[in-house]
Design a protein that fits this description.
By secondary structure, this protein is of the alpha/beta class. 45% of the residues lie in helices and 11% in strands. GO terms for molecular function: 1-acylglycerol-3-phosphate O-acyltransferase activity.
Length: 292
């Protein structure tokens, strides 16, 4: 690999400009109103979707096996494995998105270069690829401990020394979050987390858990919201059909947490969830019963 390309890959999501020349994403397919996309359910289109998903799996298998060898050689250096895992995510996530073919627009990318707690809503498998691609080098993920059973991604996630939490009971979960915060601080890392704690089936925003606030209170890192729109239309939960829906990733400015107090935890959760409600389209806003 030539030096300019390697240098570009190591600069967070801005390496996308380097990979664009190879993995260029197509423009959006507009409907008659110019604001949506053409959802074509003919057998030929469905077949193409199936081929795209199969190609994604085979491509991920290849990159995962290659990086697994690298990470096994790096077993004595656990936190260097996190950074190598980020590089795997940049290449693999970008490749998956190119194969799927959805047009992607990124806003506020200047806010992605800070050390922070990155949070984003979660409604589609595509969200995982976006997070892999866009989070900067030196960012550790945090997920439920059962992620190890997810094919390919789960095993590499653990091998790359990303963090897992035990959600079997509240006490164990809180202790896991404290350990995660200590790892972030001791190793000068950023963090990426889905504050809803699970994937939304409808695409509508779910209530936020308090875990990311607990980590912010312990680390005092700023919080950078990443708002994902359109992914729930592009690839719905439980579906094997990928649609050409346009996707937007919007970073909001970092929110300082240096003066936050633990007794106001519920207020901070409500404040940040309100930001998401403000910026999400109507079809992704929570129903009244979801936020009560």
């Amino acid at each position: 690999m030539d030096q300019p390309l390697l240098s570009s890959l190591l600069k967070g999501h801005r390496r996308g400009s380097c990979l664009d020349s190879v993995f260029r994403l197509p423009g959006p397919k507009e409907d008659g109103d110019g604001g949506g996309f053409v959802d074509d359910d003919r057998w030929g289109t469905v077949a193409v979707s199936a081929i795209r998903i199969l190609t994604c799996f085979l491509a991920m298998l290849a990159t995962t096996l290659a990086w697994a060898v690298v990470l096994l050689l790096m077993l004595p250096w656990p936190y260097e494995r996190i950074r190598q895992g980020n590089l795997y995510g940049h290449v693999t996530g970008r490749l998956m998105l190119w194969i799927l073919g959805n047009p992607i627009k990124i806003e506020g990318s200047e806010f992605s270069d800070t050390r922070a707690i990155f949070i984003c809503n979660h409604a589609s498998p595509i969200d995982i690829f976006l997070v892999m691609w866009l989070t900067p080098i030196g960012t550790v993920g945090i997920a439920k401990k059962e992620i190890i059973w997810y094919p390919l991604l789960g095993q590499l996630y653990v091998l790359a020394n990303h963090l897992r939490i035990d959600r079997s009971n509240p006490t164990a979960a809180i202790e896991s979050l404290k350990e995660a915060a200590r790892a972030v601080m001791d190793n000068n890392l950023s963090l990426i987390i889905f504050p809803e704690g699970t994937r939304s089936r409808s695409g509508r925003l779910l209530p936020f858990k308090k875990g990311f606030i607990r980590i912010a209170l312990q680390t005092r890192l700023p919080i950078v919201p990443m708002i994902l729109t359109g992914t729930h239309s592009a690839w719905r939960k439980g579906s094997l059909r990928v649609r050409p829906a346009p996707i937007t990733v919007k970073y909001l400015p970092p929110m300082a947490t240096s003066d936050w107090r633990s007794e106001n935890m519920n207020e901070y959760v409500e404040l940040i969830q309100a930001l998401y409600v403000k910026h999400l389209p109507d079809c992704q806003k929570p129903l009244t019963s979801d936020v009560s």
